[in-house]
Fold this sequence. Notes:
Low-confidence stretches: none
Oligomer: single chain
CATH class of the largest domain: Alpha Beta
Strand content: 15-25%
Amino acid sequence: MEEKKIYIVGAGLSGLIAALELEKGGLSPILLEATDRVGGRMKTDEIDGFRLDHGFQVLNTAYPEAKKYLDFKALGLKNFDPGAVIFDGNDSYVITDPLRSPLKIVGMAFSRVGTFLDKVKMFALTQELKKKSNEEIFSGPSVPTHQFLKEYGFSDQIISNFFKPFFRGIFLEKHLNTSSRMFEFVFKMFSLGHAAIPEKGMGEIPEMIKRQLSSSRIYFNSPVKTVEGNIITLETGEELKADRVIIAVQPDRVMKQLQGQFPPPRKVANLYFSTQKSFLARPMIGLYPGDHLVNNIVFMDDVSKAYSTNGRSLLSVTVLESDLPEKELIKAVQAELEVISGVKAEYFKHVKSYYIPYALPQVDDLKYSIPYTEAKVFDQVYLAGDYLLNGSINAAMTSGRIAAEAVIHSFMSTH
Length: 415
């Protein structure tokens, strides 16, 4: 087959996986990346002896696609302890392993979060979901997650103390309006796998995929202005003619005719502070139920020592909704951290804030996968991205693979 010009717009996870799969099909794509490195939303900065991920993200080790494309050992994955530390203003308690062995949870801690019946229901739900395939979960009924939890019979106590703060941090929305399909999928993944981070930051994941590429080329700092048919126009005005284009960013950014077709994405603010030492002192997520700025906190160096090389502890704080200017937000978060920890606000030294306007796509009809025929949007133009399926690392990888299959197939069918 003569050399085909295939361009991939965006070198995030979907774009990288698409390139990898195209190479397996004997093609050599060119990736056009607007920034100076791969990864899209998954990047890690090194600042003052800290590693800062752009937004608190974890890899679930049960994700089927992650197992296929990543070498967990080489990433030096560090697992979180399952469960959470719950802060209720003047007290904190640890609930271990609520998703894996809910019936083994003994003692008082759980009874402050939920009832004995909640444990039984958690166990039952875990067993039910393990029997369902991921495809079955995503083709099943869809109701808002908060409704699903109530109808399943969970107590208000466990919904507000555990489910709400835990899943708010995953869905990046306050009211758990996200489809129950997504909840069931994530719940199943957490009961089968571990939440983990690569030893040296989430940015190692796209870097690992990039290293697997051999014949692809990546042009950095090459933002695309528009894609019209098979003509790509760069911000510089340069025009590129393609045999096939895979758009691996949300396509309304580069295709005028798709503007207004996508609901606004979920956004998040992620603030980093350094302290003398971690007040959690365990590789666990801390949840702050109720209506606060702070949704969840993690001392990243409790999970992986490599996140801090300067002897101080690195605290990641997730804030879901706030219109406060940065200085005020920092002060308000420090005040909440003082309430949570009993450590004076000024001891939390601000390191950096990330405002992530596109943290997760908002998807109305969640799917696990689509047939490759659905990846094509116009002649010669194909789409990849988690917004096609569901907001997850697994979906980003799946969509990249499907787009590549569609492109490879399109060449086969023209011969």
